[in-house]
Design a protein that fits this description.
Blueprint (H helix, E strand, L loop, with lengths): L4 H7 L9 H7 L5 H6 L8 E3 L5 E3 L1 H7 L6 E7 L9 H14 L5 E4 L4 H4 L8 E2 L2 E4 L1 H5 L5 H22 L5 E6 L3 E3 L9 E3 L10 E3 L1 E3 L4 H8 L3 H9 L2 E5 L4 E3 L6 H8 L6 E5 L4 E4 L14 H10 L2 E5 L4 H16 L5 E6 L1 H7 L12 H19 L5 E6 L6 H13 L3 E5 L1 H4 L5 H10 L1
Parallel strand pairs: 3-16, 3-17, 4-15, 4-16, 8-11, 17-18, 18-19
Antiparallel strand pairs: 1-2, 2-14, 5-6, 6-14, 7-12, 9-10, 12-13, 14-15
């Protein structure tokens, strides 16, 4: 049914203007972390506090709750993203806050940001508007030191590997076939490829290497998948660091430094607890990239949150064809998890982009391009449905979206038989996600 312009404007009233993300985060009222933990029935003895508003969860908490029944798991994914992202994290936060607004016990599990993207074009990964995780600056920067510890363990392995070759090369490693590089939590492109060991004979030996970002470290992926310290140790030992001169792989365990790496990483395995700007409990823990790893937060954080709350919202990186696929086929299989519903985040801007509109023209209304781009949405929805998951499309609204464009996406979802909800969680917080929450609760 076609609506008149006035009817559409009434159905999709203009979005309110809001302060900047940094203004909202700095003016937000935070609760001390023991109070946030108490919402999940975690007492103060289960916390290792990092100041007033951050904490790691002690291993003893898992032992107390591991036999509890699992809650319902809601996965947030997206259509093929534009360079700016489509708002999975904002939507995840807003959806979780909506559960709280309705008085339903809940938790949120998100990936841990990396400083590289934070200082790059994409920016931080703590949400936006009135759907943010706090304290935002801490989470986007050093947080509880997890990424620094991962970098230290990674670079220790690099140093031990080079020392092994420098002194006697007892493992007969081929210097031209070293696959283990170094890492730093910055996007410093000058360090991506280079040659080291150019000093005297006391300074090592010349060979080519480079630095990868910490989120791309195999140790980040391992920390995200490890169930416990024994599992961590086993996985670290299986890292292939090089090949010997006969072409056989050389494993990290052969360098006798796994114990030292585990000591560095001992606190990394503990999930981090923080809060949203509406005081939703959030586990922010580990952040492997989705293109080279599985792209979701730690198994330990997700499993723990499911034991503590009847509803848990989590996200998977990139689009449904990558992040959601890896979430189901890697993380869920490894951890014995099963999502109950899936939110597919879409934006009018991205759909127009996929319909052929140039980046500089995305703010202008273009219904034909939008309809063409909606095919991208349909394919992602079908991909998720193949896993047997009910799908709810969340239209993450931008101020530039016209009422006619929003209604075009709504009608398209109706035509393909997929639930749809207008998400305004950035501008309105939990209020902007109530409809999305209700539709997901029905799916669960």
């Amino acid at each position: 049914m076609k609506h008149s312009e006035s009817e559409l404007e009434a159905q999709y009233p203009k979005m309110p203007s809001i302060p900047s993300d940094i203004e909202i985060s700095q003016n937000a009222s935070m609760k001390k972390i023991p109070e946030i933990a108490s919402m999940l029935d975690i007492d103060i003895d289960g916390l290792e506090q990092y100041g007033k508003y951050k904490a790691k969860i002690e291993n003893s908490v898992w032992e107390k709750v591991k036999d509890n029944p699992d809650g319902k798991l809601i996965l947030v994914t997206a259509i093929t993203p534009t360079p700016a992202g489509e708002g999975k994290t904002c939507t995840s936060i807003g959806l979780a806050q909506a559960f709280g607004k309705l008085g339903i016990k809940h938790a949120l599990a998100l990936r841990e940001p990396s400083m590289g993207p934070t200082f790059g074009i994409k920016g931080g990964a703590a949400g936006g508007g009135f759907s943010q995780v706090l304290p935002m600056e801490d989470i986007n920067m050093h947080f509880t030191g997890d990424l620094h510890a991962i970098a230290a363990a990674h670079n220790l392995l690099s140093a031990v590997l080079d020392n092994s070759m420098h002194f006697d090369n007892s493992l007969d490693i081929d210097p031209e076939k070293v696959t283990w590089r170094r890492t730093i939590d910055l996007c410093d492109r000058q360090l991506r490829n280079g040659e080291i060991g150019l000093g005297s004979k006391f300074d090592g030996f010349p060979h080519k290497t480079g630095f990868d970002i910490v989120a791309a470290s195999e140790i980040m992926t391992i920390a995200a998948l490890a169930l416990d310290m024994d599992d961590l140790r086993e996985r670290l030992g299986r890292i292939v660091v090089a090949y010997n001169k006969t072409g056989k792989p050389v494993f990290a365990r052969e360098l006798d430094c796994i114990g030292s790496m585990c000591v560095i990483l001992k606190d990394v395995l503990k999930p981090n607890l923080v809060q949203t700007c509406e005081h939703t409990p959030v586990f922010v823990h580990c952040g492997p990239f989705g293109n080279i790893a599985h792209g979701s937060n730690s198994v330990r954080a997700t499993r723990l949150s499911l034991k503590l709350a009847p509803y848990v919202v989590t996200e998977a990186g990139f689009a449904a064809d990558l992040g959601a696929e890896k979430f189901v086929n890697i993380k869920c299989r490894q951890a014995g998890l099963k999502p109950n519903a899936c939110v597919l985040v879409a934006t009018v801007r991205a759909l127009k982009y996929h319909g052929g509109v140039e980046k500089e023209d995305l703010n202008a209304e273009n219904l034909e391009a939008l309809k063409t781009g909606c095919e991208n949405l349909r394919t992602h929805a079908e991909n998720v449905q193949k896993y047997g998951l009910p799908v709810v499309v969340a239209i993450n609204r931008f101020p530039s979206d016209s009422p006619a464009e929003l209604d075009t996406v709504r009608q398209y979802c109706e035509e393909i038989g997929v639930e749809c909800s207008l998400s305004e969680v950035v501008a309105k917080g939990s209020e902007g996600g109530i409809d999305l929450e209700k539709k997901n609760q029905t799916c669960c």
